[in-house]
Amino acid sequence: MATHAVHESTRQRIQLDKHLPVDHHLNQVYRFGAGLMGLVLVAFGILGLINKIGFFDTRGDQVAGLNTNGTLSVLSICIGLLLFVGMVIGGNFASTLNMVVGIAFILSGFVNLGLLDTEYNFLAFRIQNVLFSFIFGVVLMFFGMYGRVGSALPHDNPYWRARHPDLVEQEPRQPVGPAAGQKALARDESPRPPESGR
Fold this sequence. Notes:
By secondary structure, the chain is mainly alpha-helical. The protein is 62% helix and 3% strand. β1 (61-63) and β2 (66-68) form a beta hairpin.
């Protein structure tokens, strides 16, 4: 139980190091996913507001092949801006945010599927919106889970190392770029023991 708690706290404290190639690649994927999907939502929301559709109009109107109303448009913009925040922060935060929002979209698809053609369909969902919600959620979850879950993660993966601290190799992970050059320079300039005479 104690070991499990240590592993959980390690996962919560994980920070991606931009100087390490694996961490840098994962960070770029999380940022790109959050930014791209956020842009889609913001664009959809703005197009809906431009059409001046009623806020709680359950019939809604078509925008980019999807049904929408004022409430759904504003909600889309808010979630899109939240994803932009994840893009700016990046790292583990962006990964977790992508997964959470992705799951929320999938759950929203199921909930609104049950509300179709009812008076409680306040977001003016139609079947195409439900399908979009499922697809959008799955894609966003993929961006968030990339390099984070799986049975074959490489041993230099930060999430694998956080889950297996007892198996992590003793030598530190080697950075690349300027940080690597600085470390190499520091090693070269470090004092060396005098050579013993023969």
